[in-house]
């Protein structure tokens, strides 16, 4: 399976398909300091900042009026907003160069021609990608040529550690407060949608991200042990038929390994699941258990500490 290389987010709104691209819904509740990871773990969002004049603010903006300068009004009618810091993360990405498309529309403030208090607000914030500032004092309405007008900013970013960070940050510029307005607090970062596309053909994914994703190592390990056991049993049967015993071991009459040279590295790798726990023994039984314990070597053994102690106690 190919590593994830592309993702698209409908910030602050429901899922929508535009030009064949599925923008996944991003409508989770974000509090003063909170984050959300999508169930597929392809991306995440976090917010830091609070509205001083209201409680339970969803940090989302929804405007039903038509947005101009686009054929896809629905993509811009909703947006995710923040009073301070808003971050989006692409997770489990294949390393390489990407094109980051950020979609904006100022749908909170009114048009200056309305001569209302709500038309005086200025939204100014900074944009960072992979920790590097790409836009300083970005003003959506100024860049788009007015309010309720769609615009897109495109950037090239390089992923080197399987994740991408997009950070929108209000640095205190623009409007600070509108105390007599219903828009108090709506002057921080705002974004309508994100679309990230790889500029390469991803290879097979051999790594995982490690923000909430785990590889089933236990299953793989068990499978390898099972294969090893089957191989050993077949090998042992062949050796028994030929009258041979495992190499590098002295055996008692029953064929059980008795001892091996501690200086011979080759003898510390036992070719057998049954011999996974074995001890260096000398032909004297006057050694105490502590001495025996120090001489025990575990090689590829699935036994836990309790089982190992039982073996020592029973003198096996």
UniProtKB/TrEMBL annotation:
Domain Malectin: 7-194
Coiled coil: none
Keyword terms of this UniProt record: Membrane, Transmembrane, Transmembrane helix
InterPro entries: Malectin_dom (IPR021720)
Residue span of region Disordered: 239-265
Compositionally biased intervals (Basic and acidic residues): 239-253
Pfam families: Malectin
Protein name: Malectin domain-containing protein
């Amino acid at each position: 399976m190919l590593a994830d290389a592309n993702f698209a987010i409908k910030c602050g709104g429901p899922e929508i398909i535009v030009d064949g691209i599925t923008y996944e819904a991003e409508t989770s509740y974000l509090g003063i300091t909170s984050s959300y990871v999508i169930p597929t773990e392809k991306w995440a969002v976090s917010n830091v900042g609070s509205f001083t004049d209201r409680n339970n603010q969803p940090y989302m903006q929804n405007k039903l009026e038509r947005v101009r300068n686009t054929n896809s009004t629905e993509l811009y009618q909703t947006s995710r907003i923040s009073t301070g810091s808003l971050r989006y993360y692409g997770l489990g990405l294949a390393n390489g160069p990407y094109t980051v498309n950020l979609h904006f529309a100022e749908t909170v403030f009114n048009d200056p021609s309305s001569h209302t208090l709500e038309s005086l607000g200025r939204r100014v914030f900074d944009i960072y990608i992979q920790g590097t500032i790409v836009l300083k004092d970005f003003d959506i309405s100024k860049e788009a040529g007015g309010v309720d007008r769609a615009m897109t900013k495109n950037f090239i970013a390089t992923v080197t550690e399987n994740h991408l960070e997009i950070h929108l940050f209000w640095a205190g510029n623009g409007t600070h407060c509108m105390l007599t307005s219903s828009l108090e607090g709506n002057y921080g970062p705002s974004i309508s949608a994100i679309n990230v596309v790889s500029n390469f053909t991803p290879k097979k994914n051999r790594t995982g991200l490690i923000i909430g994703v785990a590889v089933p190592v236990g299953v793989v390990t068990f499978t390898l042990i099972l294969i090893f056991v089957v191989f050993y049993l077949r090998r042992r049967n062949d050796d028994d038929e030929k009258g041979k015993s495992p190499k590098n071991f002295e055996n008692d009459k029953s064929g059980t390994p008795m001892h091996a040279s501690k200086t011979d590295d080759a003898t510390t790798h036992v070719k057998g699941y049954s011999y996974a726990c074995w001890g260096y023994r000398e032909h004297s039984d006057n050694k105490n258990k502590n001495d025996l314990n120090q001489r025990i070597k575990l090689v590829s053994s699935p036994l836990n500490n309790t089982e190992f102690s039982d073996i020592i106690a029973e003198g096996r």
